[in-house]
Structures are given as C-alpha cells and as structure tokens.
Design a protein that fits this description.
Shape: globular
CATH topology of the largest domain: Spore Coat Polysaccharide Biosynthesis Protein SpsA, Chain A
Strand content: 15-25%
Number of strands: 15
CATH class of the largest domain: Alpha Beta
CATH architecture of the largest domain: Alpha-Beta Complex
Length: about 325
C-alpha cells in the first residue's frame, strides 16, 4: 500500500520548521512530500538543509491551495493521498485508523480525523472539527463548530460517522477518486475547494467519513487570517460557485435566498466598520454572475449521474438556528 502525505507550502518556512519533524517522526507508514507553490521566502533552502531526504515538488507559480495541489499531485503515484496543511501537528497512530476505515468499503473514498485547536487542545478547530455538514441553503458547518463557535471536546464525537465533507486541512482520499474527480476546481484558488470536491464525490454516489480514532491539532489561519478581506471574497464567491455547480434542485430560489443573506452579512460588516469586507462581498457577487455560463456547463456535467449520497445534509437553515434561535452546539440542532 502506497501512502503519500502531501504538504502544500507557500512562504511557510516557520510552519515547516515547527511541525514537519513531527510529521516525519509519526508517519513511518507514508512518504512525506512537500509541494512548494513558488515560495519567495527561503522555504526550499531550509528543506534542503534540514530535511535532505524529503522530496520537493516546485510549482512554477502560486496556484493557490486548489491549483497548487492539482499541479503537484500530477507528478505522484499512490493508493492513498493525505493532504496536510503545514500548520498541523499530528499525533501517534494518526494515519492507519483512517486508512483502515477507508479500506472497509469501496464506497468510502475520503475521510478526515478529529481536528482540535493547536492553541486550545481541548476544543475543536474551525476547519473540520468532527466532520463537515451542510444545510439546505448550502451553508457549511461542522460537528463541533457552527460558524465561529467551536465546542469543547468532551467525547461527544468519539465515533466513526459518515459526513458531508472532510476538511482540506487533513484530507485522506483515495488517489483514484482524486483523479476521477480531476482534483480540486482550480478556479477556487483557496477556501471551500474541499467542500466542492466532496459534494462532487457525494453526487457520484460515494461516501465521506469522519474518524475519531485519529487526532490532529490545527493552528488555523496559517496562510490567510480569518478576517482577511481576500478570504471573505473567496468564501463568498466559492460558496456561490459550489451551490451553482452541485445543488440538485430548483436553483434560482436557493441562489436568491443566498444573495439576500449575503446582503445581511454585508450590513453586519457595515455596522462593524469593516468596509473592505463589504467590497469583498460585492466583488464576489460580480465574479459569480460573470461566470454563470461556465458554472452552468459544470452543473450539467455533474448532474448527468442519477445516484446521490446525501448523508450529512441538515434540512433546516443553520443561519436561523444559530443567529435566530441561538443554537451554537451541534447537539442542539
């Protein structure tokens, strides 16, 4: 069995210096590879000096998270690929429980471990927590994390469970599936590309799982700060992209509702004086409308298939549950 851990790096020498030695020490079952996204710091020199045995793939430009992995993984052959953020601390025996879960069924093609916060290890981390879910309007959330509220890990998610999406911060995926799906959508650049990939996988009839028997600790915001206007732009744009491509139903009403709620979010930014984030939402909408013809073609291709695997869909509005009814934990839903 050939397992590859692929770490995408962009000017992340500090994260590599902090975490890479632990990844190597605790990952004897896998080959660790760094895909560099045309870094302008001294990441490559650092790797060659400190980790001379590590294979490095150097992309010719910064393709972002989505395109960066697509380009780098073209050069690799494996049975399983583990996409691992550079700001993740792994633990003992973090690989095989997830691989063993993937081996139990041909239908289970991707999975994630339990993701806890590096800076507060008793709490779940924003990106992934205990497995990703999605509501009826296409808003993603997690078991253990709803919007910006994360829960304490009290063993409430110590299970192996089918979910809707698995985090890109630590994504285990069968290499054949990644290839069949043609990888990430490179137009996303970063953020929500794993949700789009997982939704496409679900639309093909396959399953995504969460494995509690493996734990990693994620710093989060290692590349883009959570309040970055660029991140706001990517999240709003890519969310609309993901909905348009993958939602199997009457699209117009869903998109209209989302645009209205985006306007509410912009108003909240206005009252908070976050004017750059307002402009990010406006740009995201313009970008979405400009690319509707392309998205429509992708949607048509995706929905040629008749079988779906929609476990992990929450058939209510998570926005209303969280902001209206003040339900901030998964068990309250």
């Amino acid at each position: 069995m050939n397992i590859i851990i692929a770490i995408l790096n962009y000017n992340g020498k500090n994260w590599l210096e902090q975490f890479l030695h632990t990844v190597i020490a605790k990952s004897k079952e896998a080959e660790v590879i760094v895909i560099d996204n045309a870094s302008t710091d001294d990441s490559i020199l650092f790797l060659k000096n400190k980790f001379p045995a590590i294979k490095i793939i150097v992309n010719t430009e910064n393709y972002g998270f989505a395109g960066g992995y697509n380009e780098g993984l073209k050069h690799l052959e494996a049975d399983y690929i583990i996409l691992l953020n550079s700001d993740v601390e792994v633990t003992d025996n973090w690989i095989m429980p997830v691989i063993n879960l993937l081996e139990t069924s041909e239908e289970i093609v991707a999975a994630q471990p339990k993701v806890l916060a590096y800076n507060n290890k008793s709490k779940f981390e924003h990106a992934g927590a205990a497995g990703g879910m999605i509501d009826r309007l296409g808003y993603p959330f997690c078991r253990g994390r709803i919007f910006n509220h994360t829960e304490e890990d009290l063993g409430q998610f110590d299970d192996n469970k089918e979910v809707f999406w698995a985090t890109g911060a630590c994504l285990f995926i069968k290499a054949s599936t990644f290839k069949e799906q043609k990888g990430f959508d490179a137009s996303y650049f970063a953020h929500m590309e794993e949700i789009d990939l997982c939704w496409r996988i679900k639309n093909s009839g396959k399953k995504i799982y969460y494995c509690s028997e493996s734990t990693v600790y994620h710093v989060g915001g290692g590349t883009l700060d959570y309040m970055s206007p660029f991140k706001t732009y990517l999240n709003f744009k890519n969310s609309l992209y993901t909905l348009h491509k993958n939602y199997d139903g009457f699209l117009s009403s869903i998109i209209l509702t989302r645009l209205i709620l985006d306007g509410v979010a912009a108003a909240k930014f206005l009252f908070g004086g976050e004017f750059k984030n307002i402009w990010s939402i406006i740009k995201a909408h313009f970008h979405y409308f400009r690319h509707i013809p392309t998205l429509a073609k992708q949607r048509k291709s995706i929905h040629k298939k008749k079988y779906k695997s929609m476990t992990g869909v929450y058939n209510k509005s998570i926005v209303w549950q969280f902001f209206g009814l003040k339900k901030d934990s998964y068990s309250d839903l």
